[in-house]
Amino acid sequence: MDLKKVHGEGSTAVRALDGVSLRFPGGEFAAIMGQSGSGKSTLLHILGALDKPTSGTVTVGGTELSGLSDRKLTLLRRERMGFVFQFFNLIPTLSAEENILLPALISGEKVGRHTRRLEEMLDLVGLTARRNHRPDELSGGEQQRVAIARALIRNPDIVLADEPTGNLDSKTGAGVLDLLKESAARYGQTIIMVTHDPRAAATADRVVFLADGRVVDETRSPEHDEILERIKTLESAG
Ligand SMILES: Nc1ncnc2c1ncn2[C@@H]1O[C@H](COP(=O)(O)OP(=O)(O)O)[C@@H](O)[C@H]1O
Ligand SMILES: [Mg+2]
User: Fold this and answer.
1) Which of 97, 137, 145 is nearest to 117 (CA)?
2) Which residues, by Cβ under 5 Å, contact ligand 2, an ion?
3) Is 36 in the pocket of ligand 1 (CB under 6 A)?
4) What is the rounded average pLDDT for all residues in the chain?
5) 3-89+157-237 has which fold?
6) Least CB-packed of 21, 22, 146, 179 within 10 Å?
């Protein structure tokens, strides 16, 4: 609530967020849209406890993040959040399956505990037949599906995705969005997706528009025609 973020100090300081107040109900698929530099990634990083606001508060399931130690924040991220990024961020030397299991391994859990969940995730993202392939043996869309399975392996309440379709052609991107929606529907997750792609945003239940670090507008499904119009206007302005 009332999130502000200034990157840097003095003459080079950049006000990335300028008083953002948002609430994401459980199970919602929300998109955050805005031009490059509008503060989308900064907001997502703060919501995901990857970065701290200069002022303002973030509350996750009743817990205010500013009151938590770094250790507790790390635990909260591991227990409750899944992250998907534009550049997939897979470990090149590990197989698809090992990449998916990575969050479990990092948490020091026995892989055996996740066998069933791994099969479920491979099935969800349609990569059972490619489980032993390394990232460089997979297409961009397949790599992003591995990244999504990795984000979901520990069944997070919240999935934070920063331009998840940014590096994919539109058809592959649509497949990735379907996957996120299906996961949200199946597991009741809250999805917060940052994008500047109007087609990606139009698949969400709700679209929040950011400009210069402020929320300037908000639309809800099924106002998609309106959303697309607004984006065209934004694009022609920028
Ligand atoms: N680590 C950083 N240090 C300094 N400035 C930053 C940093 N991260 C982002 N910014 C600046 O903050 C503003 C918002 O950036 P960002 O949140 O990445 O926007 P978006 O994701 O919408 O493109 C931009 O002006 C950007 O240059
Ligand atoms: Mg960004």
Assistant:
1) 97
2) 40-41
3) yes
4) 90
5) Rossmann fold (3.40.50)
6) 21
